[in-house]
Amino acid sequence: MSRAVLSLGSNLGDRLGHLNSVVTALRPVAVSSVYETKPWGVEDQPDFLNAVCVVDDPARDHWAWLRAGQELERAAGRVRELRWGPRTLDVDVVTVDDVRSADPELLLPHPGTPERASVLIPWLEIEPDAVLPGHGPIADLLAALPDAGVHRRRDLVLG
Ligand SMILES: Nc1ncnc2c1ncn2[C@@H]1O[C@H](COP(=O)(O)OP(=O)(O)OP(=O)(O)O)[C@@H](O)[C@H]1O
Ligand SMILES: Nc1nc2c(c(=O)[nH]1)N=C(CO)CN2
C-alpha cells in the first residue's frame, strides 16, 4: 500500500506553477485537467485552479502522504492565515486506499469531499467508478450537488 487521491488548489501567485510543483515532486499515476473554480467557504477571494491526482507508492502510508503535501505547501510559500482563505497551494488528502481516520490531524476520507464539486469533478474525470469510503459512488455525490461554477481550462495542462 498505498494509493492516494490528492486534491490540489491554488488561488495566489503562479497558480498553475504551484499545482505543477506537486506533479513534479510526486509523479502521479493519473492527473486530471485543470479547472477554474468559484471559491466556496470564503467567497470574497480570487478564483481557484483545482485539480486532482492519484499517487501510488508502496513505501508511503497515509501520514507520509499528508507530510509530503504539507512540505509542498511550505515550498510554495504558503502562509496559514484565514480558514478557507486564499493560498498559494493547498494539498488535501482525499482518500488513501480504504483508510478511515477520525484523527483531526488527518481525517480520512477528507470530510469536505461530498460537498465539493471542485474535488468531485476532476476526480470523476480520472476515476469515473470511484467510491468515497462511507459515502458511495462519487458520480452520485456529484449528481446531488447544485451547479457549482467549475470550468475546465483546456488551455492549462499539468505535467
Ligand atoms: N485529509 C486531510 N488532508 C489534509 N489535511 C488534513 C486532512 N485531515 C485533517 N487535515 C488537517 O487540516 C489542517 C488544516 O488544513 P488546511 O489549512 O489546509 O484547511 P483548509 O484547506 O482551510 O480547510 P479544509 O480542510 O476544509 O479544506 C492541517 O493541519 C491538517 O493536519
Ligand atoms: N473553489 C475552491 N474554493 C476553495 C478552495 C478550493 O480549493 N477551491 N479551497 C479553500 C481552502 O481550503 C477554500 N475555498
TrEMBL record:
Signal peptide positions are none
The record's catalysed reaction(s) read: 6-hydroxymethyl-7,8-dihydropterin + ATP = (7,8-dihydropterin-6-yl)methyl diphosphate + AMP + H(+)
> Top EC class per UniProt?
transferase
Q: Does the keyword Cell inner membrane apply?
A: no
> Mind telling me which Gene3D superfamilies this protein's record contains?
7,8-Dihydro-6-hydroxymethylpterin-pyrophosphokinase HPPK
Pathway in which the depicted protein is active = Cofactor biosynthesis; tetrahydrofolate biosynthesis; 2-amino-4-hydroxy-6-hydroxymethyl-7,8-dihydropteridine diphosphate from 7,8-dihydroneopterin triphosphate: step 4/4
Name the keywords, alphabetized. ATP-binding, Folate biosynthesis, Kinase, Nucleotide-binding, Transferase
Q: What is its EC number?
A: 2.7.6.3
Cited InterPro entries: Hppk, Hppk_sf
* Any one GO BP annotation for this protein: folic acid biosynthetic process
Q: Which GO terms describe its molecular function?
A: 2-amino-4-hydroxy-6-hydroxymethyldihydropteridine diphosphokinase activity; ATP binding; kinase activity
Write down the Pfam families for this protein, in alphabetical order.
HPPK (PF01288)
Which residue range or ranges hold the 7,8-dihydro-6-hydroxymethylpterin-pyrophosphokinase domain? 83-94
- UniProt name for this protein: 2-amino-4-hydroxy-6-hydroxymethyldihydropteridine diphosphokinase
Q: Which organism is it from?
A: Amycolatopsis albispora
Q: What is the lineage of its organism?
A: Bacteria, Bacillati, Actinomycetota, Actinomycetes, Pseudonocardiales
